[in-house]
Design goal:
Largest interface: A-B, 69 and 66 residues
CATH superfamily of one domain in chain B: Dipeptide-binding Protein, Domain 1
Distance between the termini of chain B: 24 Å
Shape of chain A: globular
CATH architecture of the largest domain in chain A: Orthogonal Bundle
Number of strands of chain B: 27
Order of helices and strands of chain A: HHHHHHHHHHHHHH
Structural class of chain A: mainly alpha
Number of strands of chain A: 0
Oligomer: heterodimer
CATH class of one domain in chain B: Alpha Beta
Largest sheet of chain A: none
CATH topology of one domain in chain B: Dipeptide-binding Protein, domain 1
Shape of chain B: globular
Distance between the termini of chain A: 6 Å
Number of helices of chain B: 22
C-alpha cells in the first residue's frame, strides 16, 4: 500500500503543475500585471511610475512565461510563472498582492468554513440516509412516489433561493436567529444555525435520491432475498444488511469531500458574512489578487487529490476484496 | 401501538419544552436574532458596517472612502472641514490656526497677498500645531524605565508568538511634534509606499521630486519588500529642501508658484503626524509575515483608535484615552439650531465610546439588520428604495409609512461628484474640433435624456448637470439664467430639455440627415464602451440605444471588464463612454482639471479621459486654478464652462444625490460630503435603541411548532403502513 501511496503522490505532481499552468493562463488572459497594479493602487491619480513600482516590488515586472532577454535557464526561471509557482510546491503561499501573509489568513479562515461545512455534512448525512432508508422501506408506495417528487422539486430549487428565503423567513419574519454575521467561540453557534439548516435542506433532495438509489440497488441483491427467506423482518434486513453494504459507496463518497470541507462555500459564506475560505477566494477574484487565487486553487487541488487518495484507502478498509497495488 | 404512542408523547413533550424555552427567552427581553452580545445592548456603541475590506490603513497610501471611514477617525491632519457650516469651510484640527501663507518672487523678495500669480515663484505655508497632543497608547511607543523602546529590538521568539498588536502588552505614548508631520511628508515621497498623491505634491513642494528620486536609489540599494517593512529606512536622515522644521511645534512648507488648493490637501489624512517610532517598530523582520504592519495597525492621535482589526469580520474603533479633546461646534448653518444640531454645542467630543463595523457584503441582510435596529444608519440600495422612499405628487421626497412608524430619518444631499458621458475627442467621428463633430456631440447631448435616466435607473437620486461643477462647489451657478443653452431652453419660465426635433436639425447640419452616414448611406454607427454587461446593465444599455435611435443613430455596445475598459481609455480606442469623478476638495479646479489639455489620458496619462484640448480653455484654467475664490474667479469659471458647453466634450450627465437613513436614536446626522472624520460628532441613545430592538424583534415560535406538528401528522400514515406491513404474512 505504501508503494501505491507514494506512486499516487508522484502522479499528483504533474497534475498540480498542470493545474498551476491553467490557473496562471486563465488569470493572466483576463488580468494583466498592469491591471492588478491599478486595482491595488486605487482608481484615482495612479501614475505609470507607481504602476511600475508596484509591479517591481511584487515581481510582476518579469515576462509571464518566457524571458527572451535572459540567458540560459534564466529564460524560464526569470518569469512570473516560475517565480510564483516554485514556492507553492513548498507550501509557502507567500504574501497576497495587498501585502498580507496568505498562510496565516488561510489558517484563520479555514475554521469558520469548517464550522459550517462539517455540521452540514454530518447532519445532512444523518437526515438523507434516514429519509432514503424510509423511502426504500416504503418503496413502490405513495410515500415513495411523493418523496421522490419532493426530492426532485428540492433539487430543482436554486441554492440561492434557500439562502434568501431562509434568511427572510427565519431571521426577518420569525426573528429566531441573526440574519448574518459571525463570532468566535461559543458565540458562533447562533450564527451557524441558519446556514447549517439551509445547507442541510438544500442538500436533502439530491442526497436522498442518491442514497435511495444505492439502497434500492442493494435491496434487489441475492443476499437480501436470502435474509428475507430466513424470516428476518424488513427492519432488520434494511438496517443490518442493506445499510451496511450500502455504506461502501456512502463512505467513499464522504471521504472524498472531507478535505474539501476546509475550502468553504462561496455563496453561503458571502450571504451570511462568514469569514471563511470561500469568501476569501471570492474577495481575491474580485480584487484580482493573483497570489491568493493561485494559492487557493493550488490548495483546492491538493486537497482534492488527497481526498481521492483517502477514498482509495478507505475502499481497502471497508471492502476486504479491494487491494491497492 | 402503546410503543408508538409513547414515542409520540415524547415528541410532544419535546415540543412543549421548546415552547416553554421560547416563551422564557421571549420574556427575558433578549432578541434571539440579535447579532451582538446581550451585555452590549445598552452600551454607547455605534453599529455600522463595511462591505469591502479596506486595502490600506496607512495615511500615506489610503485614498478611498472605505479606507477613510476608519483612518479619518484615527489620524488627525492639520485641518478639517467645519461639521455644520455650508459652503464647506476649513478650520484647524491638528494645527493651532489656519496656515499663514507668504508669497515670494524668483529673487526671494516677499510679495503682497494680492500679487499676480505670474509674479509668484514660491509660496510658503507656515504651520503651527497644537501643543499637548498625544498619540494613542501603542507598543511602538512603549519605553522601559531607562527610556529605551520596549519593542524596537524584538527577537524571533517574541515575533513568533505575536499574531496581533494586542500580543504586545506594553504601550506608551508621546507628544505629537512638528517633526512628525515632516516625517509623514517624507513618507509621501517614499517610492515603496506608492502614495497616490506623490505625483501631484511633487509638482509643488520644492525638492520633493528630487527627494523621491534620491530615496528610490537609496531604497533600491537597501533590500526591501512590498511595504518596505522588513528593513527600516530612517527618513529622518534625509531632508526635503521645501519642508523645514522651525521649532518643536511649527514647520514650513515651500511650494513652487501659487497653489491655493494646497490648503485642501492639508485637510486629508495624507498630512497627519506619523512618529518615526511607528516605522521603526513595524519594519522589524518577521512582523510583516505576521500581518503586523503600519498598513493594518494605525498609530494616530485622533479621537478613536483601532481596538480590533479583523477585516474579515469586524473593525472596532474605541475612544483614544489620550485624545487631546475637542468641543462640538458652537455655531452652524442656518436651520441647524432648529434641526437640533446645536443641542450639544460646546460639549466635549467624542460622544460615542465605541464603533463596531461589521463586514456585510450582501445588501439583503444589511437592509434587514437595519430595519431590525441592528445597524444605526444605512444607505438605500435600489432593491429597497421603494420600500423606504416615496415621492409625493409634487415630486418631493419622503419616507414611506413603515419607515415613519419606526422613527427613521431620511437625509439627502447632492454629492460633490459628477457622472458623465464622455466623447473621445481623438476619435475621427465624434472627436476633434470640427463644426460637424461639435454639432453631432450637441445633438447627442440633447437626445440623451438624463432626467429620464435619473428617474429610471437612479430612483430619482440625482440632479441633471448643466456643466461639470456640482452644486455647493464654488463656480456652480444655479437659476434659470444659468442653464446650458445648447441642451436646455426656457419654456414658461421653466427649464426643459430641448425637443428631439432640434437635435435632429443639428444632425442635419452636422452632415447626418436622419442619422444617416453620408458615406455608407446607412444609419451612422457609434460605439459605446461600457463595463455594465450583466443582466442589471441590459435595461440601461437598451435605454442608451433608444436615446441614440431618436436621432437615427445606431449605437453598438462594446462591453468589456473594467480592466479592458481602462485600457481602451488609456490607449484612446474608445469612442463614447460613461465615467464619474468624486471631488478631492470643494474647488472648481478639482472638476475643471478633468478637461484640461495637459491632463489628457492618452498623451499624458492624466484624468482627462475625453482627451479634450482647447487652448483657450487651457489658458483660462491656468489663470483660474491659482486664484482665490472671488467674483473675478467666478467670471473665468463662467467663461470656461461656456466653452465646455459649446464644445460638448461630455454629455453633462448628473450629480448623484446621496440618500441615507438613520434611526431615531442616532443623532447629529448632517451630511458632510467633504469631511470624513464625522464620527466624533455623532451620538447614540442606547436605551431607546434597546427598547426598540426588543419591540421590533420578538421571536415568533408558533410556525416552528406548526411545522413540527405537520411533520408528525405526516408520519402517521407511514407508521400505519409500517405496522400493516409488519403484521402481514410473507408474499
Amino acid at each position: 500500500m505504501m508503494a501505491y501511496i507514494a506512486r499516487r503522490i508522484l502522479y499528483a505532481i504533474p497534475i498540480l503543475i498542470g493545474v498551476n499552468i491553467l490557473t496562471f493562463l486563465l488569470f493572466f488572459v483576463v488580468n494583466s500585471p498592469d491591471d492588478m497594479a491599478r486595482m491595488n493602487l486605487g482608481l484615482k491619480r495612479v501614475t505609470p511610475e507607481a504602476v511600475e513600482n508596484w509591479k517591481r516590488e511584487r515581481g510582476y515586472h518579469l515576462p509571464l512565461l518566457y524571458n527572451s532577454s535572459a540567458k540560459g535557464l534564466a529564460r524560464v526561471t526569470d518569469t512570473i510563472f516560475f517565480q510564483k509557482s516554485v514556492k507553492l510546491f513548498q507550501f509557502d503561499f507567500g504574501s497576497s498582492d495587498s501585502g498580507r501573509d496568505i498562510g496565516y489568513d488561510i489558517s484563520q479562515r479555514m475554521w469558520p468554513s469548517l464550522a459550517i461545512a462539517l455540521p452540514v455534512l454530518l447532519v445532512g448525512l444523518l437526515i438523507n440516509i434516514s429519509y432514503a432508508l424510509l423511502i426504500a422501506f416504503f418503496r413502490a408506495t405513495y410515500i415513495d412516489f411523493w418523496s421522490v417528487v419532493l426530492c426532485v422539486v428540492m433539487m430543482s430549487i436554486s441554492g440561492l433561493f434557500y439562502i434568501i428565503g431562509g434568511q427572510y423567513l427565519v431571521s426577518k419574519l420569525l426573528h429566531l436567529v441573526p440574519i448574518s454575521g459571525y463570532d468566535t467561540g461559543i458565540d458562533a453557534i447562533k450564527f451557524l444555525i441558519l446556514p447549517v439548516i439551509i445547507g442541510v435542506i438544500g442538500g436533502v433532495g439530491s442526497g436522498t435520491r442518491w442514497y435511495r438509489t444505492l439502497f434500492l440497488e442493494e435491496i434487489n441483491k441475492d443476499y437480501v432475498r436470502t435474509a428475507r427467506a430466513k424470516g428476518l423482518s424488513e427492519k432488520r434486513v434494511l438496517f443490518r444488511h442493506v445499510l451496511k453494504n450500502a455504506m461502501i459507496p456512502i463512505l467513499t463518497g464522504v471521504v472524498v469531500v472531507l478535505p474539501l470541507l476546509f475550502m468553504g462555500s462561496l455563496i453561503t459564506e458571502s450571504f451570511f458574512g462568514i469569514p471563511g475560505l470561500g469568501s476569501y477566494t471570492i474577495d481575491a477574484i474580485d480584487s484580482q489578487d493573483f497570489a491568493i487565487v493561485r494559492s487557493m486553487v493550488f490548495l483546492g487541488s491538493v486537497l482534492y487529490i488527497l481526498g481521492l487518495l483517502l477514498t482509495d484507502i478507505s475502499y481497502t478498509l471497508v471492502d476486504p476484496r479491494v487491494r491497492l497495488s | 401501538m402503546a410503543k408508538y404512542q409513547t414515542g409520540l408523547m415524547k415528541t410532544i413533550c419535546w415540543a412543549g419544552w421548546l415552547l416553554i424555552l421560547s416563551l422564557v427567552s421571549g420574556c427575558s427581553g433578549t432578541s434571539w436574532n440579535n447579532p451582538y452580545p446581550a451585555a452590549e445592548s445598552t452600551a454607547n456603541i455605534l453599529y455600522s458596517s463595511f462591505s469591502e475590506r479596506p486595502k490600506h490603513l496607512d495615511p500615506a497610501r489610503a485614498y478611498s472612502s472605505n479606507e477613510y471611514e476608519f483612518i479619518a477617525q484615527i489620524y488627525e491632519p492639520l485641518l478639517q472641514y467645519h461639521f455644520l457650516k455650508r459652503p464647506y469651510e476649513l478650520v484647524p484640527l491638528a494645527a493651532e490656526r489656519l496656515p499663514v501663507v507668504r508669497y515670494y518672487d524668483a529673487a526671494g523678495a516677499h510679495l503682497p497677498d494680492q500679487a499676480l500669480s505670474s509674479k509668484i515663484a514660491f509660496s510658503e505655508y507656515e504651520i503651527t500645531i497644537r501643543r499637548g497632543m498625544l498619540y494613542q497608547p501603542h507598543p511602538a511607543l512603549a519605553t522601559d524605565s531607562s527610556g529605551a523602546y520596549s519593542y524596537h529590538h524584538l527577537d524571533s521568539r517574541q515575533i513568533a508568538r505575536s499574531n496581533t498588536l494586542a500580543d504586545f502588552p506594553l504601550t506608551g505614548t508621546r507628544e505629537v511634534t512638528a517633526e512628525d508631520f515632516i516625517y509623514q511628508i517624507k513618507r509621501l515621497a517614499s517610492p515603496s509606499l506608492n502614495s497616490p498623491i506623490a505625483g501631484i505634491i511633487g509638482e509643488y513642494i520644492v525638492g520633493f521630486s528630487d527627494y523621491r528620486k534620491e530615496l528610490s536609489e537609496l531604497q533600491q540599494r537597501q533590500q526591501g519588500d512590498a511595504d518596505g517593512s522588513d528593513t527600516y529606512f530612517d527618513l529622518r536622515s534625509y531632508e526635503i529642501p521645501g519642508v523645514e522644521l522651525l521649532d518643536r511645534y511649527s514647520f514650513r512648507i515651500r511650494l513652487r508658484g501659487k497653489y491655493p488648493q494646497f490648503i485642501y490637501w492639508l485637510a486629508m489624512p495624507f498630512f497627519s503626524p506619523m512618529p518615526w517610532e511607528a516605522e521603526a517598530f513595524y519594519s522589524q523582520p518577521g512582523l510583516k509575515k505576521r500581518n503586523i504592519t503600519l498598513n493594518w495597525y494605525p498609530l494616530g492621535s485622533g479621537p478613536y483608535m483601532l481596538e480590533e482589526n479583523n477585516p474579515n469580520l469586524r473593525m472596532v474603533l474605541a475612544v483614544n484615552p489620550n485624545f487631546h479633546g475637542e468641543n462640538y461646534p458652537l455655531e452652524g448653518a442656518p436651520g441647524d439650531r432648529e434641526s437640533a444640531l446645536l443641542e450639544r454645542a460646546g460639549q466635549p467630543l467624542p460622544f460615542i465610546e465605541r464603533a463596531i463595523f461589521s463586514l456585510e457584503k450582501e445588501s439583503i441582510p444589511y437592509w434587514s439588520k437595519f430595519l431590525q435596529g441592528y445597524y444605526d444608519t444605512s444607505g438605500i440600495s435600489s432593491d429597497s428604495f421603494d420600500q423606504a422612499v416615496r415621492f409625493s405628487t409634487q415630486g418631493e421626497v419622503g419616507l414611506t409609512d413603515p419607515m415613519i412608524e419606526k422613527g427613521i430619518h431620511l437625509n439627502t444631499a447632492v454629492t460633490a461628484s459628477v457622472f458623465y458621458m464622455g466623447f473621445n475627442l481623438l476619435d475621427p467621428v465624434v472627436g476633434g474640433d470640427s463644426e460637424p463633430a461639435r454639432l453631432l456631440r450637441q445633438a447627442i447631448s440633447i437626445a440623451m435624456d438624463f432626467e429620464e435616466y435619473i428617474s429610471i435607473f437612479n430612483n430619482g437620486r440625482g440632479v441633471a448637470a448643466q456643466g461639470p461643477i456640482p452644486p455647493g462647489i464654488f463656480g456652480n451657478r444655479a437659476g434659470t439664467d444659468e442653464i446650458n443653452r445648447y441642451v436646455y431652453e426656457l419654456h414658461g419660465g421653466k427649464v426643459r430639455r430641448k425637443g428631439i426635433a432640434q437635435a435632429q436639425a443639428l444632425m442635419r447640419q452636422a452632415g447626418y440627415p436622419g442619422g444617416r452616414d453620408p458615406v455608407t448611406g446607412k444609419s451612422l454607427i457609434l460605439y459605446y464602451d461600457t463595463t455594465s454587461a450583466g443582466p442589471d446593465g441590459k435595461a440601461r444599455l437598451n435605454w442608451m440605444r433608444k436615446q441614440f435611435a431618436k436621432l437615427g443613430v445606431e449605437l453598438v455596445i462594446r462591453a468589456s471588464d473594467y480592466n479592458r475598459f481602462q485600457e481602451k481609455m488609456r490607449e484612446g480606442t474608445g469612442q463614447i463612454f460613461m465615467w464619474g469623478w468624486n471631488a478631492d476638495y470643494p474647488d472648481p479646479e478639482n472638476f475643471l482639471f478633468l478637461l484640461y489639455g495637459p491632463n489628457g489620458k492618452v498623451e499624458h496619462g492624466g484624468e482627462n479621459a475625453a482627451n479634450y484640448s482647447n487652448p483657450e480653455f487651457d489658458k483660462l484654467f491656468v489663470q483660474m486654478k491659482n486664484m482665490e475664490n472671488s467674483p473675478q474667479r467666478q467670471m473665468i469659471v463662467n467663461q470656461m464652462v461656456e466653452i465646455l458647453r459649446h464644445d460638448a466634450p461630455w454629455v453633462w450627465g448628473f450629480f448623484p444625490k446621496a440618500f441615507s437613513l438613520s434611526h431615531a436614536w442616532y443623532g447629529n446626522v448632517k451630511p458632510n460630503l467633504m469631511a470624513n472624520n464625522t464620527l466624533k460628532y455623532k451620538w447614540i441613545d442606547p436605551e431607546l435603541r434597546a427598547r426598540q430592538r426588543a419591540l421590533w424583534n420578538p421571536p415568533i415560535v408558533w410556525p416552528l411548532l406548526l411545522l413540527l406538528a405537520v411533520l408528525l401528522i405526516s408520519l402517521v400514515p407511514a407508521v400505519r403502513l409500517y405496522r400493516r406491513r409488519e403484521r402481514s404474512s410473507a408474499r
